[in-house]
Design brief:
The chain is α/β, with parallel strands linked by helices. It has a single domain, classed as 3-Layer(aba) Sandwich (Rossmann fold). 52% of the residues lie in helices and 7% in strands. The chain has a five-stranded mixed sheet. A hairpin with a 4-residue loop joins β1 and β2. α5 runs antiparallel to α7. The longest helix has 57 residues. It is globular.
């Protein structure tokens, strides 16, 4: 989905299984973004499945080709309702979040089983090798590359800021600062590490892979590896070593969020001091001017008397 704030001239582009519902809810609740749920009249152009019903959501969660940005940009209905046009699509600050393909595919596999969109016993290997038999809902969440979601109508990667899922709150704060927002209002989300639609993953994503599924993932998501500088691993050892950049257990997440809260407090305190000094300066300015004028008059009188 796309969430828009015309005052900030910003567009958030939600890629499935990358913390999107969490980001969307924060942006709507605290920062004035608006989201429209709809089905593109040309939805069939975005699906490899003929006459398929839209299930469990809206159009953007039921795509199997082309991706989300083109789905929204090409819709006359969306552009009219959300007051968008070509110039705004071109000039607004566009941001999204991306996720390591190995981590993302495990999350999607688990999530689709939770949603009963897959046989609960389907193996990861079968999931990766039989993708075209699954619904567009599964395809959108699991197989459509993140790159595809961020291509515009000219098939160009069109993104100003791509935050990382593993640093969701840190990078979201950076986006807000980039947009000129200095007061972070979603502190409770960070403190409680709130993540909506979280998949039921009870261990490091690397535990679900073997060499065959690693190589399949490398092939299926090659554009994401290349465009977003994720490392392609060739064996289990590489995958596990590389996971330290992307996987944090619950205790590590708590510690990471605690550091972010402390950093935010220091930044807010800094802005508070600056703001207080400016207020004091404004209040005292008339008095300062008065004494400066008085001193100048007194100096002038003394100078003239000496002459």
């Amino acid at each position: 989905m796309c969430s828009v704030n015309h005052d900030l001239k910003a567009i958030y582009m939600h890629i499935p299984k990358v913390g999107g519902n969490t980001v969307k809810n924060i942006l709507e609740k605290f920062y004035g973004f608006k989201t429209m749920y709809f089905i593109n009249p040309n939805h069939s152009d975005f699906s490899i499945h003929d006459n398929e019903k839209i299930i469990l959501g809206t159009g953007f969660t039921n795509m199997s080709k082309y991706g989300m940005l083109r789905y929204y940009m090409s819709s006359e209905k969306y552009n009219k309702t959300m007051n968008m046009d070509d110039e705004k699509w071109k000039t607004y600050y566009k941001f999204s979040f991306i996720r390591n393909p190995y981590d993302k595919i495990i999350s999607a596999w688990k999530f689709c089983k939770q949603q009963k969109m897959l046989d609960k016993n389907i193996s990861l290997y079968d999931f990766l090798t039989n993708r075209n038999i699954h619904s567009s809902y599964v395809f959108s969440h699991a197989y459509l590359q993140q790159t595809d979601h961020l291509l515009n109508l000219n098939n160009e990667l069109d993104i100003d800021f791509a935050g990382r899922f593993e640093y969701l709150y840190e990078d979201l704060n950076q986006v807000l600062f980039n947009l000129g927002i200095t007061e972070i209002k979603h502190t409770n989300f960070i403190q409680e590490n709130i993540i909506y639609n979280k998949s039921n993953i009870d261990s490091n994503y690397t535990d679900y892979f073997d060499i065959s599924t690693i190589l399949l993932t490398n092939e299926l998501f090659s554009d994401d590896f290349n465009n977003f500088n994720f490392k392609k691993c060739n064996n289990i050892i590489e995958l596990k070593n590389n996971s330290s950049l992307y996987y944090f257990n619950d205790e590590e997440k708590k510690e990471k969020n605690k550091k972010l809260i402390n950093k935010m407090f220091k930044n807010n305190y800094k802005y508070y001091i600056i703001f207080t000094c400016l207020i004091l300066l404004i209040i005292l300015m008339p008095l300062i001017i008065y004494y400066l004028c008085k001193s100048t008059t007194k100096f002038s009188s003394s100078f003239l008397s000496l002459k």
